[in-house]
Amino acid sequence: MKLLRKGAEADIYLTMWDNSQAILKVRNVKKYRNPILDAKIRKQRTIKESQTISLVKSFGISTPLVYYVNLKKSSIIMQEIPGKPVHDLPNSKIIELSKEIGKIVGVMHKNGVMHGDLTTSNFIYYKNKIYVIDFGLSQNTIKSEDHAVDLRLIKEILNSAHAQIMEHSWKNFLIGYKSIVGLANYTKITNLVSVIESRGRYATVI
């Protein structure tokens, strides 16, 4: 078993399942929390993530297969998607795929799922398909404000990690998103993105 990533919420390992490479996600114990409460929170989040992965798949979106959920260890073993994170693709490919990513996010929002961590590293390009991963912060919500938070994050990521192509990528993302959620919802949500941005811009530190 090989540690791939150590995170604040969980550690990610490369492991084996049924003679194939797989991903093991283990939620970390938080020592600052009451142990009983901590175990309960990690268990609930593990259940929630595994359910959301399957739910999103039912919308026609590509996600990893969940192989095994261990509630005692707050861990999930799932399919390894051996592609490349969109983050690591050439700029021209990121611009091209941004419209499809916008559609994927639109489908999730239309069906009441907020991803919660929309970064270009959480979209994997494999065999001409985009897979969505890491639903650890996802929520079931139909609130436009929550959907706007999702959009605000991916816009921020494009602006920081992909500054050279931000304008084209964001434009394509919005075209794809709008084609799924419709004009009225698109207008409401993107207006809320602007509101969130203005709050950040004029926030003062006391």
| Number of discrete helical segments | 5
Helix content: 40-55%
Shape: globular
| Poorly predicted regions | 202-206
Query: If you consult CATH, what is the topology of the largest domain?
Result: Transferase(Phosphotransferase), domain 1
Strand content: 15-25%
Look at the helices and sheets and give the structural class. alpha+beta
Question: Which class of the largest domain in CATH terms?
Answer: Mainly Alpha
CATH architecture of the largest domain: Orthogonal Bundle
The major beta sheet can be summarized as:
5 strands, antiparallel
Task: Describe the model.
The structure is a single chain. By secondary structure, this protein is of the alpha+beta class. The chain folds into two domains: 2-79, Phosphorylase Kinase, domain 1, CATH 3.30.200; 84-202, Transferase(Phosphotransferase) domain 1 (Transferase(Phosphotransferase), domain 1). It is 48% helix and 22% strand. The chain has five helices and ten strands; from the N terminus they run βββαβββαββββααα. The protein has helices at 35-58, 91-110, 144-161, 166-181, 183-202; strands at 2-6, 10-17, 20-27, 66-70, 75-79, 84-85, 113-114, 123-126, 129-132, 139-140. The strands form three sheets. A five-stranded antiparallel sheet has the order 1-2-3-5-4, covered by helices on one side. It has a three-stranded antiparallel sheet with strand order 6-8-9, covered by helices on one side. Strand 4 and strand 5 (75-79) form a beta hairpin. Helix 3 packs across helix 5. It starts with a strand and ends with a helix. Residues 202-206 have low confidence and may be disordered.
